[in-house]
Amino acid sequence: MQANEPVGAEARYQIQLNEGRFLIQRCNECDKYVFYPRVVCPHCGGASLAWVEPKGTGAVYSTTTVRRKAEAGGDYDVSLIELDEGVRMMSRVEGVAPAEVKIGMRVRAKVVDDKGAGLVVFTAEEAK
Fold this sequence. Notes:
Number of helices: 1
Strand content: 35-45%
CATH class of the largest domain: Mainly Beta
Order of helices and strands: HEEEEEEEEE
Low-confidence stretches: none
Helix content: under 10%
Mean pLDDT: 92
Shape: globular
């Protein structure tokens, strides 16, 4: 770590994303998962949070389509994803038309490069 590199929970999360790794926290005291990155567990107040790799799967909890003119990139999806670990995160579902993203749709996380910064997005899982 560089001398001037940020060291807070959000900075550590972003550093991992920039290296292509998606990690969330789990409390060592109550064993519950935590997201968005914190320094104290919101469930029990414990200060011992470990970085762990989630399964990377979940379901769309809510979704909306943001409308843009075609010359501005066209419409895009913004979804709240509930990971199988029980935490929720805001993201988008790629590879599916925004209007086709549905509540309950099973999705899988992937880390992409967004203008030099790691970003978690989701793709629809194949129906089984």
